[in-house]
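Below is the data:
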Amino acid sequence: MATILIVFALAVVAYFAVDILASRWSGERETSFPSGCIVVGLICAVAAHFVAPWTAVMIFLLVAAMRVREAHLNRRSALAVDERRPTQDGP
């Protein structure tokens, strides 16, 4: 039981940090509570309990990599939109 609580807490805190950093990197100014943290924590805790503790690490790394990739794509598309926007040079 202690393993489940420890893995859940670590996954929630770690994914929260990844989500906040990825949000800032992609250019978001404001964000709401990332409820995905709780989902990732539950998935990692269940995997650690029923399969093996190392599966929680693998699931976390996979989900974190997807979140960073999403932030990268958001940032790239925002930069592309900014480049296409006409500049207004006035007197």
User: Anything to note?
Assistant: DSSP finds three helices and no strands in the chain. The chain has a mean pLDDT of 85. Residues 2-78 form one domain.
